[in-house]
Amino acid sequence: MIEFSRHILPNGLTLIVHQDFSTPIAAVNMLYKVGSKHEHAEKTGFAHLFEHLMFGGSENIPVYDEPLTAASGENNAFTNNDITNYYITLPAENIETAFWLESDRMLSLAFSEQSLNVQKKVVVEEFNQHYLNQPYGDVWLLLRPLAYAVHPYSWPTIGKSPEHIQNATLIDVKDFFYHHYAPNNAILTIAGPVEPESTVELVQKWFGEIERRALDDKNIPVEPKQESPRFLEVSRNVPFNAIYKAYHICRRNHPDFAPTDLISDILSNGKSARLYQHLVKEKQLFSNINAFVTGDIDEGLLVVTGQLFPSTSFRDADESITSELEELKIKPVSDYELEKVKNRFESNFVFEETSILNKAINLSFYEQLGNAGYINQEVEKYRAVSTNRIMEVAREILSVNNCSTLYYKKN
Amino acid sequence: MTLSKLNRKEPPERRAVRKIELPEPSISTLPNGAKLAVINAGTQDIVKMEVIFNGGTRYQKKILSSQAAVSLMCEGTTTRNSNQLAEQLDFLGSFLQHSFDRDFASVSLFTTRKHFAASLEVVADILTNPTYPENELEIFRKKGKQSLTVELEKVETLAKQGFFQCLFGPDHPYGSFATPDDFDKLSQPDVADFHKNFHNLSNSFIILAGRVDEHEVKTVETLLGANSPGRRLGALNNSLPAAAQTPREKFTYKENAIQSAVRIGKQMVSRNHPDYIGLMVLNTILGGYFGSRLMQNLREDKGFTYGISSILIPYRETSVFMIGTEVGREVTKPAVEEIYNELDKLVRVPVPAEELELVKSQMTGDLLRTLDGPLAIADSIAELYQYNNMNLNFLDQTIETINTITSNKLQSLAISYFNPDEMVKSVAGAQPF
């Protein structure tokens, strides 16, 4: 049980405080409810580029990193399709330094042309390093537009192409900031050896005077139901063939999310899981195989990925995956197997809570889903999933017409 | 509230970290000779147990046998087959991890407290009775060969291998690397022999961390600490050969690479050497944190790279200093030049007082962060053991040195250790530097 208190400031900032005296470190996590799904289709990669610019100095503080380092603090951030998340860890007695820095960059950025130009280059190198100069690195650049026809999940957070990043202007940057970065679009979580009352006062002191902003209220298009199979084949300079199959699933907050996630666990969580046991060890068709859910806020994907042994044909690979999925639709999973994946989920979940930073990030994440308290109900939700529900959900999602298949061929 | 009086230009008051309390582990010797360190910490009912062997790749007669011996331990014992082992551990919600490096091999169990005893019973079987069945070894060969082939497509892998080959020579235990074909040459007796010789519990170091008390300690003593006559191993043949004379630069061509991977560095001293902590400080200044000189110059100023860092990698009897980055193909040459400029500056110019203060705060904060939760603490203890033989004062000495070291001392260390002419350079990509 993770205890916490919630406070909403008059300007709309949500504050979550969790006390833990077992660590000398405090974690300060700022989640902004903006991700790559809020981008314009012709200006993709922007939310993530913007994350880099948040370290380029703010209205009253020319350099972000130095004063934090001087307080023995460390920070980083990540952007995904739904959110941008900034976090700091530092000795608890220096926590005010974190509030000073975070509040100033929420107030206003420095917006420097120099910073924009350098970070554009840095992000293009990041694009090259992770997506273009890696074997199989461009998979998500191919799979997303195949699976999504209209929803902005059709591009990855890094963007559709390096050109989109190179074209970003300072006007775009300012516009993005004032429409998405605001106290009324953020969740601040503090975790560590702190007193809730004085923490709330300090947050009020540093963040209280920042005004609410009018947020971008553009609607995000809903992905229509997929009616027929989709298929793409590409050739690349890689040593082995690989296959990717993506199936549309529910939203993160939907009651079916737990059974869907458990389906992916039955398929591939742990060495005893079905795909590894049947297709790697028994039939020896794949050198590795994996199934997972994306867990996005809007309707996401269940993805199966496998790298083929040289002797395996795409046809055999594809059929073997499909028949494993069919099995879930026709044969109830045993009580033992369901219990096993639930046990694994539970212990994994508990391990997540052993570092103060993870606790802060997770509390923010669940608050953004609707209530930080979901963190204490998650295990129960998974425990409540029945054999029947697994089969029903499998029948709903694991159909040919709901599937996008990518054959990634070696040259 | 007097909001208008808020001074946003000046940082709030902050305090320096002067002392760090490592929760002291209780250390005992089990009847078979194994050392056990116990750390009771954390808020969750979890347990992590790591068993460390002197079983790294440096000890192998046949290449890959160290990796195979630790990876395949869980693929069958005298009483359970691979599938039964996986099923039992998965059902208990337990995670088994194995790792190996040049010096050490280790097996870690992550589990909940309620399932610790049942899980450890399985793990004890894995540690003491593995059979290394030929069919499991065959899958290991096929998978390993394939994943190594993919790794070798990456410029960072090629640059790193080139770097260590230049430093030690391609036949040295620290400079040799397996090729995909080596997997075919590995036999069942190679693997079983390695296990017999190097995974001996009586020579192991066991770390038990989490919410643990005498109950869990007793379980470990019973299952891993019993005396097993005849299995006790003599002294290890662990003298490290001298590094071979090798070329100081290496370029590995990789067609169509849009980035080049760069590795630059040299061999330094072991963790017990009086200069080591000072070298840690120099390394941090140069490339050990986000605000480091290399990061500021090559990323934040020039935009050559997504990231650049330098590290001091500790080994049992030595350490290696290595700068690493991936840069745009067309800026490979200027990027390498800038790295050498920064090395040169470290030697020529004393570190300004303000920068030194900043780095001290960074390093003390990093040390504090290594104590966040039982898993982090267990890792710190493992490191102390592996490279120091359990000198628990090492943390205190580190803090003390960080807080007192001067710019003059750092410059004299830089002159002795960071001479750019002594560095080895390895680049992989489409364009020579």
**Number of DSSP-assigned strands of chain A:** 11
Share of helical residues of chain A: 40-55%
- State the domain count of chain B: 2
Largest sheet of chain A: 6 strands, mixed
CATH architecture of the largest domain in chain B: 2-Layer Sandwich
Compute the separation of the termini of chain A in Å: 52 Å
Structure classification of chain A:
alpha+beta
Tell me what portion of residues of chain B adopts beta-strand conformation. 15-25%
Mean pLDDT of chain A: 96
Supply the CATH superfamily name of the largest domain in chain A.
Metalloenzyme, LuxS/M16 peptidase-like
Strand order of the largest sheet of chain A: 1-2-6-3-5-4
Radius of gyration of chain A: 23 Å
By CATH reckoning, the class of the largest domain in chain A would read Alpha Beta
What can you tell me about this protein's structure?
The complex is a heterodimer of chains A (411) and B (433). Chain A has 411 residues and is an alpha+beta fold. Chain A folds into 2 domains: 5-207, Metalloenzyme, LuxS/M16 peptidase-like (Cytochrome Bc1 Complex, Chain A, domain 1), CATH 3.30.830; 230-410, Metalloenzyme, LuxS/M16 peptidase-like (Cytochrome Bc1 Complex, Chain A, domain 1, 2-Layer Sandwich). Chain A has 15 helices and 11 strands. Chain A has helices at residues 46-53, 65-70, 95-107, 113-132, 139-147, 162-166, 170-180, 196-207, 257-268, 274-282, 314-330, 335-352, 356-369, 378-383, 387-397; strands at residues 5-8, 14-19, 25-32, 74-79, 84-91, 186-192, 230-236, 242-248, 286-293, 301-308, 403-410. Chain A is globular. The N and C termini of chain A lie far apart (52 Å). The mean pLDDT of chain A is 96. With 433 residues, chain B is α+β, with helices and mostly antiparallel strands. Chain B folds into 2 domains: 26-235, Cytochrome Bc1 Complex, Chain A, domain 1 (2-Layer Sandwich), CATH 3.30.830; 249-429, Cytochrome Bc1 Complex, Chain A, domain 1, CATH 3.30.830.10. Chain B is built from 14 helices and 11 strands. Chain B has helices spanning 65-71, 82-91, 116-128, 134-151, 155-168, 188-198, 214-224, 276-287, 293-301, 332-348, 353-369, 374-388, 394-404, 407-417, and strands at 26-29, 35-40, 46-53, 95-100, 105-112, 205-210, 249-253, 259-268, 305-314, 319-328, 424-429. In chain B, the strands form 2 sheets. Chain B has a 6-stranded mixed beta sheet with strand order 1-2-6-3-5-4, with helices on both faces. A 5-stranded mixed beta sheet of chain B has the order 7-11-8-10-9. The mean pLDDT of chain B is 93.
